[in-house]
């Protein structure tokens, strides 16, 4: 089966080597179109030009959550199927997701300053994104605290699954706690409440950033595989030098 | 299986109370946190009464988190954990028994000390009752959520800070509903039962999730 063939790191390297340039190009092209549309989109009648921050802020928020879901999926791959490539995917995704979560908070606070008059409020959505960032940072800390890469991967997998179960609970409790941020306006049962002139550029930007995240992830996975092979080669060379 | 569970529980309790340190130290730390806070924010009794439940909950949270890294560590160091892992009792129940013993030895004293410390912070009798109830229900959730961090600390010999960093984000819902329930005792639109029942639910979920995750974490180093 095709998906199982990818399990082999060598096949993955060969395939991703061919796919990566196209994926990166597609990501950049989509982002270019998205940004062009975003700049030509009308300004909001109330927020003026600052609404442009939305076109990067909202995709960052979605992708930070998407990244954590990818982490949970690869954690299953590590724990259930003991898949070496799942571990590579997990390790490569954590810092990327953390950066997206941070950028979401960063752009959000820049947007909050002119709109709400403050960089930070203890509002539900901001707070749950901050907790998500903390979960990402905890994962990074755990990986860096354990020397054995195999054990580090499995430990991080256990932790990310526990975090994944907790994310909805945190989200719910923080919502209950305090809400100032506007509620979801794109994914709703009764259709999006955002006007289509703003919605289309947003969706294209979101697609572009998703492709960008996938391309970055694929590149990071390739690096990690190369890094591991290098480590094996170095260990072998050291062993041979010791015997010689 | 029940006998093995109870035997392990009794052993851990004996160790905790006879070897000294464990139970009393947590309460002293709790006292220290509560005592330094008025120095930081000033001796205004009205203000202290208002934020008192939050101070007490943060103190209890920190005292619980800081004690966690020794939960499995002693058994991992002297090899007892390897024997327990080979015993017929599932590792999940081993983790649950040790977690329960740890809570009785370190969490329960915090609950019992809380009403006294609440007097220092000028809390009204109604909020003292509500606070003690939320601590009674909420501290097991923190201990059991902390089991996973305790397991990592023991297996990888990484202490204190890492455990706190890993476990703290998971405990936020407990903190939110516990403090919200305490606040309702002073009046408000929400009845005490609403946040309190959610807190109970969170605790029950932690009782299941914690041992399962901790057992998975302990097995990481095992194969």
TrEMBL record, chain A:
It comes from the Bacteria. Belongs to the CcmC/CycZ/HelC family. InterPro entries: Cyt_c_assembly, Cyt_c_biogenesis_CcmC, Cyt_c_biogenesis_CcsA/CcmC. Residues 6-181 form the Cytochrome c assembly protein domain. NCBIfam families: ccmC. Required for the export of heme to the periplasm for the biogenesis of c-type cytochromes. It comes from Ancylobacter polymorphus. The keyword Cytoplasm does not apply. This is Heme exporter protein C.
Automatic annotation (TrEMBL), chain B:
Pfam families: CcmB. InterPro entries: Cyt_c_biogenesis_CcmB, Cyt_c_CcmB_bac. It is found in: Cell inner membrane. The chain crosses the membrane at residues 21-41, 47-68, 103-123, 130-155, 161-186, 198-221. It is a multi-pass membrane protein. Keywords: Cell inner membrane, Cell membrane, Cytochrome c-type biogenesis, Membrane, Transmembrane, Transmembrane helix, Transport. Belongs to the CcmB/CycW/HelB family. NCBIfam families: ccmB (TIGR01190). Required for the export of heme to the periplasm for the biogenesis of c-type cytochromes. This is Heme exporter protein B. It comes from Ancylobacter polymorphus.
